[in-house]
Amino acid sequence: MPSSFRSISGKKMVKILEKAGFFVVSQRGSHIKLKRNSQTGTAIVIVPDHKEITPGTFKNILRTANLSLADFDTLN
Hints:
Blueprint: H1 10-19, E1 23-28, E2 31-38, E3 41-48, H2 55-65, H3 69-75
Antiparallel strand pairs: 1-2, 2-3
């Protein structure tokens, strides 16, 4: 696993994203849609509600949410 990966569940990821200003918009099945409005635009992130998020999905969520790994660690 890459060193940037953090083992985390979907529910914990949602809580961390809420601390970053996102809010839950909807849920369809096991996927939770979060949204954040900012001056630069709207960011929409889809988080799977799984026991453990895979490394690729973790990196994609951070990239889509425009969060660095350092930002994630401070919110965690």
